[in-house]
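Lab notebook page, bench 4
Experiment: in silico fold of construct C2
Operator: M.H.
Input chain length: 106 residues
Purpose: comparison with the prior construct
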Amino acid sequence: MAYAILESYNQTPRKVRLVADLMKGKKVSDALVALEFLPRRAAEPLKKLIKSAAANAKGQGKPVDALKVQSIVVESAGMLKRYMPRAFGRASAIRRRKSRVKVTLA
């Protein structure tokens, strides 16, 4: 079992989960091909993350061609809080959410 973690990715977990849920249970090669043609911003970082996990598995001496994406978990990694000026001198909060992605190959 090999894994990789993407710590602080600047996109909301909800949007990253849309891409991550498509990868669960797929072979590594199939997941990489699917991510290549997926028109989402999160596809490229997830592709790099799966490649990194596969490289970790190769370093452990496991055959890469037999690996599957066992689990891929997307969770919140905090947020940057910003404020935007609004009418009548008020301010409204802007929450720039971040994601943490954990991939496990088996």
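Observations: Strands lie at 2-9, 69-85, 91-105. The chain has one domain: 2-105.
Next step: discuss at group meeting.
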